[in-house]
Specification:
The chain is an all-alpha fold and 452 residues long. It has 16 helices and no strands.
Length: 452
């Protein structure tokens, strides 16, 4: 991504990644559709009540895997294949160790977490069953996402898509089998998700070994290297912490929302699922910028970084307008994919939630582009700080407003958090780009920090 038209490269890289993320969200949506329509609104509320903690843990794990790939991307952009291999080897060691610790900690602590979330008693059992299985499947999540991140780091976003499509269909098929045929309820949905990711990861590894010789490791690459491990953690932990910080804010907000009752929990759950699909193309543009900026940082191409950021922001704004139109006219039909038309209260609450949030989509897409661009340029800590602004905003909205004003305040909680993140990200990005332009030695220093 260091040669050629930036816009064309971003679009070509983005489209397969977008398709993959759409498939991933689609099979997550199918989980909720099957639960909502064939198990019941109560079960849907149970799954939704743990959405924040699920995002906190699984999102952090995925962020960790994506962060590990940044030094790989930078080494590839600099043409240093040997160093790239050594990064991948140390990435494997770190992923295994962190995966084991996180799996054990979350599985044995999930009952306590559910109590802290004020999970209603009528859905507590289903919520615990679902999230405990998902936590046991964390190694499968790390396995698949680590492989996918490394392949994307060398500029190939198509191969992970193929395996994600496969995983999606496996997950959907197992959902129908476990829930409809075997009557396993939320347990079946969780088990299907874990099996699908594990199987996809295994097949992806076999395909990588056969078709990606540039990623083959040799015995001399496998030696643990403390210095390289530190660099991997320097890139990965801020991204994981970014999800964690955002997730903690979501957990704080979720604990307040859970006090509003299972009906509102169900409404916000299906509205949130719908919104993820609506904004996902813009989010994918942002994810593309992490790889784009990482490779061009390694090649010391500030001109390409600046041009790519401007063009990607423009594309994200265009899509935000499209998402707002879709939201305005098709909301009820999208929500009815999850619940029956007779669930009038749930549909009304869900519609109000989405129609409030849609006016703030232009603010949200700026976060996607700027945060990922800063991460790709090696400013992971700065990107993480934006999450701290989101955390503070969600905490304030939850405890100061949702508990006092109820559902109406909950509709504005995320938009306020998005605005808070932009308050930090916009001036920080302007500062970084201006300093790069005025002081060429600073670009060289940042490149050396990220690469040496």
């Amino acid at each position: 991504m260091t040669v050629g038209n930036p816009t064309s490269l971003i679009v070509r890289f983005c489209l397969p990644l977008m398709a993959g993320n759409l498939f991933q969200q689609f099979y997550n949506m199918v989980d909720s559709m099957i639960v909502g329509r064939f198990v019941g609104t109560s079960a849907l509320s149970a799954v939704g009540s743990v959405g924040a903690i699920n995002f906190l843990v699984i999102g952090s794990v995925i962020g960790l895997c994506s962060g590990f790939a940044i030094p790989v991307s930078q080494s590839f952009g600099a043409g240093d294949t040997k160093r790239m291999h050594r990064f991948i080897a140390n990435m494997i060691y770190l992923a295994c160790a962190i995966g084991l610790v996180v799996t054990l900690a979350t599985f044995f602590g999930c009952r306590t977490l559910l109590r802290l979330l004020h999970t209603p008693n009528d859905i507590f059992a289903d919520a615990y069953t679902y999230i405990s299985i998902i936590f046991l499947g964390i190694p499968a999540t790390i396995f698949y996402n680590s492989l996918a991140s490394v392949i994307r780091a060398v500029g190939d976003s198509k191969t992970p898509l193929y395996f994600l499509v496969f995983s999606s269909f496996v997950n959907i098929g197992l959902d129908f089998l476990f829930v409809l045929a075997f009557g396993m309820g939320v347990k079946g949905v969780a088990i299907a998700t874990v099996i699908a990711q594990a199987l996809s990861g295994i097949l992806e590894l076999l395909y990588l070994h056969r078709n990606f010789p540039i990623l083959h490791l040799r015995a001399e690459d496998m030696h643990p290297d403390l210095n390289l491990s530190k660099k991997l953690l320097y890139a990965a932990l801020p991204m994981a912490l970014q999800f964690s910080i955002t997730g903690v804010g979501s957990v704080m907000l979720q604990s307040c929302v859970n006090e509003l009752g299972s009906g509102i929990i169900a409404a916000i759950t299906i509205a949130g699922k719908t919104q993820l699909i609506l904004v996902l193309p813009a989010e994918t543009i942002g994810l593309t910028m992490a790889t784009y900026c990482g490779q061009n940082l390694g090649a010391k191409r500030l001109d390409r970084i600046t041009r790519g950021m401007k063009n990607s922001t423009f594309m994200a704004f265009i899509y935000a307008a499209v998402a707002m139109l879709i939201n305005r006219f098709l909301t009820r039909y999208m929500l009815m994919l999850f619940v029956k038309g007779t669930e009038t209260a749930v549909l009304q609450y869900g519609t109000r939630y989405l129609h409030t949030a849609m006016w703030f989509y232009p603010i949200l897409v700026v976060i996607f582009v700027l945060r990922n661009s800063l991460q790709g340029m090696g400013f992971s800590i700065h990107a993480m700080l934006a999450g701290a602004f989101e955390l503070a905003a969600r905490g304030i909205m939850g405890y100061a407003f949702v508990r006092r004003f109820g559902f109406d305040a909950a509709c504005f909680a995320n938009p306020v958090a998005w605005a808070a993140a932009d308050v930090f990200l916009i001036p920080m990005t302007v500062y970084v780009l201006r300093r790069f332009k005025k002081d060429p030695t600073y670009l060289k220093q940042r490149t050396e920090i990220a690469y040496e």
